[in-house]
């Protein structure tokens, strides 16, 4: 299915992808707000924390996403018989939340975010934000988000955050919408892969740190410069 973005003529004002769509699920960092966290540095901090507790020869997961990294190192400590397993995991999550909080600022929200979300709501679309971040840090960036979205699911609101599809399924359940009538929008392959597994349409935006080639490799149905381009795809 070729869904390469292009301008539509006046006889077909809505992109075919959107004809049956009722809901849009948005990632947050890199999609609706500027991404400020240094993930490589934070990854090193977590590995150093594990080493300081006594973990020998850590084997980080692939890909080494931070939440999964902390869980994998916790399991490795447990296998090695460490008495500090729970203490390590608690400290690792505190470290992640601290860095998220330090990086969070109202200035990080993209200038067009509120306008785009409001326009989409005005068109009758149901909107949700799904993020692996803590709710506390997201609210610091976007304190009035509930005026623009029906559902907000930070990591603490689900058992397993994306790329686990339960994150998306929970959002669709709350929005009362089916996967084939839902779009997942994000700036990272995690978002695209999650959407694919959950059965949604997927849109990759290039407003984060991931290049177009990576989005194509992940299988995005559509790739756009940023969320503003979505407005060009819906009928006015």
Description:
The chain has 236 residues and is an alpha/beta fold. It has 2 domains: 16-35 and 105-233, HAD superfamily/HAD-like (Rossmann fold); 39-103. 39% of the residues lie in helices and 11% in strands. The protein is built from 8 helices and 6 strands. It has helices at 39-53, 66-79, 85-103, 113-122, 135-141, 165-175, 189-198, 212-218; strands at 23-26, 126-130, 151-153, 182-186, 201-205, 222-224. A 6-stranded parallel sheet has the order 3-2-1-4-5-6, with helices on both faces. β4, α7 (189-198) and β5 (201-205) form a beta-alpha-beta unit. α1 (39-53) packs parallel to α2, α1 runs antiparallel to α3 (85-103) and α6 packs across α7 (189-198). The longest helix has 19 residues, at 85-103. The two termini are 25 Å apart. The model is unreliable at 1-12 (pLDDT under 50).
* Averaged pLDDT: 90
Classified in CATH, the superfamily of the largest domain is HAD superfamily/HAD-like
Question: What class, by secondary structure content?
Answer: alpha/beta
Helix content: 25-40%
Low-confidence stretches: 1-12
């Amino acid at each position: 299915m070729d869904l390469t973005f292009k301008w539509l003529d006046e006889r077909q004002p809505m992109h075919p992808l959107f004809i049956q769509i009722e809901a849009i699920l948005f990632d947050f960092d890199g999609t609706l707000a500027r991404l400020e966290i240094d993930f490589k540095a934070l990854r090193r901090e977590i590995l150093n924390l594990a080493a300081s507790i006594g973990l020998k020869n850590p084997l980080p997961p692939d890909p080494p996403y931070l939440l999964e990294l902390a869980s994998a190192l916790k399991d490795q400590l447990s296998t090695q018989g460490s008495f500090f397993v729970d203490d390590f995991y608690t400290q690792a999550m505190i470290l992640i939340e601290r860095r998220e909080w330090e990086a969070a600022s109202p200035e990080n929200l993209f200038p067009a975010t509120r306008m785009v979300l409001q326009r989409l709501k005005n068109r009758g679309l149901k909107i949700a934000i799904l993020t692996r971040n803590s709710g506390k840090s997201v609210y610091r960036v976007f304190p009035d988000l509930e005026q623009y979205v029906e559902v907000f699911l930070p990591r603490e609101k689900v058992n397993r955050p994306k790329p686990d599809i339960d994150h998306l399924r929970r959002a669709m359940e709350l929005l009362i919408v089916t996967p084939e009538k839902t779009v997942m929008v994000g700036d990272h392959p995690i978002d695209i892969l999650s959407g694919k597994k959950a059965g949604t349409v997927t849109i990759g935006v290039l407003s984060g740190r991931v290049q177009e080639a990576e989005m194509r490799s992940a299988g995005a149905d559509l790739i756009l410069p940023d969320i503003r381009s979505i407005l060009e795809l819906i009928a006015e």
